[in-house]
Design a protein that fits this description.
Blueprint: H1 2-14, H2 19-48, E1 53-56, E2 61-64, H3 79-90, E3 98-99, H4 106-123, H5 130-144, E4 146-154, E5 160-162, E6 174-175, E7 178-185, E8 189-191, E9 203-210, H6 212-219, H7 235-243, E10 252-259, E11 269-274, E12 277-283, E13 295-299, E14 301-302, E15 309-310, H8 312-337, E16 341-343, H9 349-352, E17 373-375, H10 382-399, H11 416-426, H12 428-455, E18 460-465, E19 471-476, E20 487-488, H13 491-494, H14 499-511, H15 518-524, H16 530-537, H17 539-552, H18 565-576, H19 579-582, H20 586-617, H21 635-638
Antiparallel strand pairs: 1-2, 3-20, 4-7, 4-13, 5-6, 8-9, 9-10, 10-11, 11-12, 14-15, 16-17, 18-19
Helix pairs in contact: 3-12, 8-10, 11-14, 15-16, 16-17, 17-18, 18-20
Amino acid sequence: MAPRKMKDQKAEEDNELTPKVVRERYDKGLDVVRAKLQDYWLNDAFVRGDQWIWYNPTTETLAEFPRDSDRVQATLNRMWPNSRTIVAKTMQRELQFEVIPSGGDDSTVRGARTSEAILRSVRGPVSHDWERLKEQFVWLTWKGGTGAICVDWDPNIGDPVANVDAVDAATPATRTGDTIEEALSISEFVTQPGVKNPEKGAYWIKARALPPEYVKAYYGLSEIPQGDVTANANLVQRKLESATGANNQELCLVLTYYERPNPMRPEGAVAVVIGEQFVDGPKKWPFPWKDRLNIAIGVETIDENSGYGSTILSDARSVQVALNATWSSIIEHVKLASNARLAVPHSSMDFIDQLTDLPGEVLPFADGMATPFYLNPGDVSQTAVLAMKELQEQLDDVMGVHDVSRGVAPTNIESGLGVSILIEQDSTPVGRLVGEISRVFSRVASMVLKLYEKNVTETRTSVIANSTKIPETIHWTGKDLSGQTTAHVPMDAIVPRNRAAQVAIAEKMAQMGLITTVEDFTRFADMPDQSYLIDAMNPHAAKARRENHEFDVGRQPITSKYDDHAIHIKEHTEFIISPKFDTLPLELQKFIEDHLQGHETLAAEAMGRQKGKMELGGPLMGMVPTADGAPQLSPEAALMTPGGGLPPAPPEGGAGDPAPIPPGLGSGEMLDPAALPPEF
């Protein structure tokens, strides 16, 4: 047993986490992705328009081609507008979240709805601004082939809960804490080498280059750390340095090490390394999950044998280089060969000084002396022009962007549906990126919910806007989530849609009678500012939706005889069958049902008053508009029997004369109420 104990002790010593171990693992991770890093920085430079460059493997730097003042080095940057078009399409629709309840009981359903509401609140621009985070992630993934989002918990942010008036670092305020989500490029993190699914690996390392003064203040160091990025500058570190905008300043390379619990380190580890020392940790694994790391990784194009991806932007660079070379050649031709030059015989040189720019000027020459004449400039080679066109089309094909992507409809295609079909066939890169957005943000949202469930013990308030843009307020703690922390971003909810096609389909459904209200039309057509349109076109529906919001926050609006009861009944019924209704207290649910019954009662009373007026004043009285929500009735409604049918016709040959027919009834003429007999 003694040798086994010595062996176990030796293994434990070998597995000891030290700053040196973190540095070595970071360097090994860099070696795996070095080629992809070259592509990332080259793609980044090309998209920004710096395209006369090349990668020098000896110095591990991006070097410029030598400049020659006699030659043209033009840049016709099509990679930037094409990339912007693709990224803009992925940003067309906001993130949507679904949390499917794991059970059918009230607590589980209420927890799932609370989790969805929290995610919608976190997504907003005044909270964590996940739309900006999504755009950063898409750009980084598009340029590097691989992008990631890191999720962490920072106890030093959020609302203060103790020592609120603290003014010095010795007695800092205690805060509620909150999650932090950060988008990372492939140059800002490394994962465990050889693992095809890096999210399931044992560890990953985040790399940042920060000013020494900031590092000292943030980590509470006694001295300013020495900058090491410039001293040990490779391509990655120099780019990390330039990304901060401090090219003339030495920066600190800050490595944050995350290792989840595993057989070699059962408690996991989180530590921050600067230079050759730990400035924070090592600490135990702080996250409420152990089956994965706290990072979500997405790729533009899958590499089957690697945990990282590639991007079609790398293939577009060579076409862009050829396009720039051809464009430069054409410009040189324009510069040197396109000027119209004046050919002058030597004997006519004495008369040249007499030429002016006066149109129709007469310049006499001596007999027998040749006159000056213009040489026509040479045309640009048609081969070069065709090459330019072919290269542009090839670049568009590689990047998946064509005229229809830019909003230019092909000839003879005018319908919104036709354009939509073409755009769907043209959006291969967009569809790929949207799929990665769905997968990555599903994982990010799930991690955020798990952290909230574990760490939030105080009551928090989240304000969100529902589909009608009416604010919705919820109060929650971590326990209210009831374990419902598995979120999903439906791809169908965020995939780009052509608005013209959506409106065209809505119009077709309205013509078929499938859409009958302005609220349904604006909702189906996904029109902007729906709430304002409804306020202007159907104020009764707008009021009913405001009442639904009051139900949601616990207030109890009363019914009014001036409401359009049919519209209120429809809107309140939709609220009752919505998932949100199930999360309300039972007494509030009962009040909403009573409120709905009140509208039914008022509608019946208004109908009765209309019926009475028709019986006393004639059929036309039912067509008089009222302010109490009563419907306008047709003249035929006055003749309806209590059973719902028309009165029976008198028998043929029966005694008595038929009832008098009012003047104009059935003749197509307008009725004059003054001419009606008393019985009408």
